[in-house]
Amino acid sequence: MVNNLGWWGKVNIGIIGAGSTGLLLAASLAKSNHKITMYVRRKTQQRKLQHNGVHLRPNGMTSKVDSQMHNELGLQDLYIICVKQPVLQKNVEGWINQIPRDKPILFLQNGMSHVDVIADFEQPIFVGVLDHGAKRVDDYTVEHTGIGEIRVGIIRKDDEALAKRVVLQLHEERFPIIFEENTLHIMKRKLIVNAVINPLTAMFNVRNGRILENAHLKALAKQLCYEACLALDMDFETHWIYVKQVAKKTESNSSSMREDVKQNQQTEVEAITGYLLQLTDQELPYNSFIYHGVQSLSIESWNQSD
């Protein structure tokens, strides 16, 4: 796809979604002097971001950003969509209709259920995997709980040159953004981690590290990993080691799915575990159980809040 973006230096970036990921991106990219506009769903959050900027812990840095409502997208050089899967499914068509066809969009989501949908959009489409740890404190404050990187890949070969250019513009040693040649591999690897840690910690209401410290949870985690690798045709031994590394690295973190259950929010279990169950005709008994378990938890949480 032809794209005539004349970028050099500062990039005008629109970030759709101001949860932990969106706030972390805004703070980190604003520090590199890129112009950041955040698009949010709630007027209260929009006003707070406009007034306070984004506050990053633990270093105490505050970055000035613009903020607008998510149904009023302006013109940016690059759009980063980092809402959770249920919100993406409800709103993505409306956002796509507001974004010019020559402007690139980077999608940062858990799961892979969105990939086939976004592949048909006319804009240059990038997909990314973020392995930083981040916790949203309030509407304009985020705590950076684990330093990692963002890996960016493509779905269509035509978008490769532009994706590499975007990565080159955004990459900083303190906040690495890397182009990934094997997009499918990194997405599958992240999905395996999400399919083990997220639903298990949500169902048993534990922090990430407990799936290694509790022998029974570790046994369940291993089976979930085995089945995920089976469904995705990935090597089990390699990815079980990787899952354990991620759980150890994020041992004091609370997974996003656990937080969703605690806050009576819709989880991403459909886009993660549900995706695996639909992907294969093979029996995945542990994933089937954890899928229905998390869905049941969500229903009971909603009932108790009525």
UniProtKB/TrEMBL annotation:
InterPro entries on file: 6-PGluconate_DH-like_C_sf, 6PGD_dom2, ApbA, Ketopantoate_reductase, KPA_reductase, KPR_N, NAD(P)-bd_dom_sf
Domain Ketopantoate reductase C-terminal: residue ranges: 185-295
CC per GO annotation: cytoplasm
SUPFAM superfamilies recorded: 6-phosphogluconate dehydrogenase C-terminal domain-like, NAD(P)-binding Rossmann-fold domains
GO biological process: pantothenate biosynthetic process
Recorded GO MF terms: 2-dehydropantoate 2-reductase activity; NADP binding
Enzyme category, top tier: oxidoreductase
EC number(s) reported in the record: 1.1.1.169
Metabolic or biological pathway, per its Swiss-Prot or TrEMBL entry: Cofactor biosynthesis; (R)-pantothenate biosynthesis; (R)-pantoate from 3-methyl-2-oxobutanoate: step 2/2
Coiled coil feature spans: none
UniProt KW keywords: Membrane, NADP, Oxidoreductase, Pantothenate biosynthesis, Transmembrane, Transmembrane helix
Transmembrane segments: 12-30
Catalytic activities: (R)-pantoate + NADP(+) = 2-dehydropantoate + NADPH + H(+)
Highest taxon in the source lineage: Bacteria
UniProt domain Ketopantoate reductase N-terminal: residue ranges: 13-155
Alphabetical list of PANTHER family matching this protein: 2-DEHYDROPANTOATE 2-REDUCTASE, 2-DEHYDROPANTOATE 2-REDUCTASE-RELATED
Function: Catalyzes the NADPH-dependent reduction of ketopantoate into pantoic acid.
Homology family: Belongs to the ketopantoate reductase family.
Designated name of the protein: 2-dehydropantoate 2-reductase
Origin organism lineage: Bacteria, Bacillati, Bacillota, Bacilli, Bacillales
